[in-house]
C-alpha cells in the first residue's frame, strides 16, 4: 500500500502529516509510526499527525511521538496541522479544532506559513527545588541556566526525565537562559527521547514560568529563540492564572511524497 504524506516543520520541530478524513489509515500501529518517523529508514520526524473529521470542529488532530506512542499536546505540531488544513482547503484564515487536551483556536496568515495557536489556560505552577514544573498541554520542567549554547542537553535532560520523580510518566525538560528581551531555550522531549530543535508547549511553559518568577502581570509578549528559529508567546497573567495564551511562529510545508507501507 502506498501512503501519501506531507512533511512540515515549525521552527525545526518536524512532523509527518497525513490526511485521514476518509478514515482509511489504520494508525494504531506503533511499529509503523516509529518506522515512518525514523530518520534513516523512513521519512523522518519528531512525530506524526493525522488530520481527521470531527463533528462540531473544523478537524481533529491525532498526534503520535516518534516512538509510535500516542502523545499529549504538541504545540508546534498544532501550528503545523493548522497550516496543513489551510493547504487542504479545510479552513480559511481561522480554525477551531480538537486535540488531545481539548479544543483549540488558531489564526493563520494569508501566506499560510505563520500560525498563532491558542493554548490551554494554566493556573498551577509548582517548584522542584529551583526548577518550575507546569502543564501547558504536556508536562514541563523549566530550569534556568547559563552557558546554554554549550550545555549537554541530551545527558542532563535524559537524567532529569528518568529520575525517580518523573521516570514513570516522563517529563519534557527545558533549559533556559535570558537573552535580549526574551529567552534562549533548549528542550529534551519525552517520547522523542532526545533534544529537538523546538518544542511549542515547552517554550510556552518557559514564558509562563519566567513571568511568574519575574512578577510580570497584565498582557505579556515573550520572544524565544530555539535551535530551529524564533517563536513568540503572548498571554494575560493576573498573578494567579494564565489565560489567552498564544504560541506564534512559522509552520512550513517542506515536501510531500509517497511511501510503501
* Class from secondary-structure proportions: alpha+beta
Give the CATH architecture of the largest domain. Roll
Question: Quick check: average pLDDT?
Answer: 97
Low-pLDDT residue spans: none
| Proportion of beta-strand residues | 35-45%
Helix content class: 10-25%
Whole-angstrom Rg: 18 Å
Tell me what you see in this structure.
The structure is a single chain. The protein has 261 residues and is of the alpha+beta class. It has two domains: 2-119 and 251-260, Diaminopimelate Epimerase, Chain A, domain 1; 125-244, Roll (Diaminopimelate Epimerase, Chain A, domain 1), CATH 3.10.310. The chain is built from four helices and 17 strands. It has a 17-stranded mixed beta sheet that branches. The protein starts with a strand and ends with a strand. The model has no long low-confidence stretch (mean pLDDT 97).
What is this structure, in a nutshell?
The chain is α+β, with helices and mostly antiparallel strands and 261 residues long.
Which helices and strands occur, and which strands form pairs?
Elements: E1 2-10, E2 13-19, H1 30-37, E3 47-52, E4 59-65, H2 75-87, E5 94-99, E6 102-108, E7 114-118, E8 125-128, E9 131-135, E10 139-144, H3 153-161, E11 172-179, E12 182-189, E13 194-196, H4 200-213, E14 218-226, E15 229-237, E16 242-250, E17 252-260
Parallel strand pairs: 2-3, 4-5, 10-11, 12-14
Antiparallel strand pairs: 1-2, 1-17, 3-4, 5-6, 6-7, 7-16, 8-9, 9-10, 11-12, 12-13, 14-15, 15-16
